[in-house]
Amino acid sequence: MSNQAKTKFACQICETRSQLADAISAELKAAAQVYHLANHWRSAHETRELSNFQAEDLNKASLDQFAADSAKEADWFTQYQEAIETHRLASETSKQAREQYHARLKAYTDTRIAKGCGC
Ligand SMILES: [Zn+2]
């Protein structure tokens, strides 16, 4: 989920500022996906609980339903775990982008003198 540089910047501060903004957007998107899939997983878990209870009748249809709901629960859980990993990577990227931006901005924050960047 890497963002390509859309614009060439004349100065390194504006370049890393843009990279950080992109990284934060990507991280928020990944966080929303984690939340979205956690809700799907919870629903699938609750459905599976219900069909497990209904399968006490030992009818073939009930047992088949429980097997199907178990497979769905496992699938949503896998997707949820993948979203967590995607978010972890996005978070690493934004952490690095933040550090790079702050490092390049330091000359300005130390002096409060802007060097007309022309970006
Ligand atoms: Zn600039």
Describe the protein in words.
With 119 residues, this protein is mainly α. The chain is 80% helix and 0% strand. It is built from two helices and no strands. The chain has helices at 12-54, 60-111. Helix 1 runs antiparallel to helix 2. The longest helix has 52 residues, at 60-111. The model has no long low-confidence stretch (mean pLDDT 93). The chain binds zinc ion. Zinc ion binds at residues 9-11, 13-14, 117, 119.
Give the key terms.
0% strand; binds zinc ion; rod-shaped; single chain; 119 residues; 2 helices; mainly alpha
Strand count, sense and barrel status of the largest sheet are:
none
Mean pLDDT: 93
- Care to count the β-strands? 0
- Residues in β-strands, percent: under 5%
Give the overall shape, derived from the CA principal axes.
Answer: rod-shaped
Output the structural class: mainly alpha
The helicity comes to over 70%
**Secondary-structure element order, N to C:** HH
Poorly predicted segments: none
Computed CA radius of gyration, to the nearest angstrom? 24 Å
By oligomeric state, this entry counts as single chain
Q: How many angstroms does the end-to-end distance come to? A: 26 Å
- The DSSP helix count reads 2
- Cofactors and ligands: zinc ion
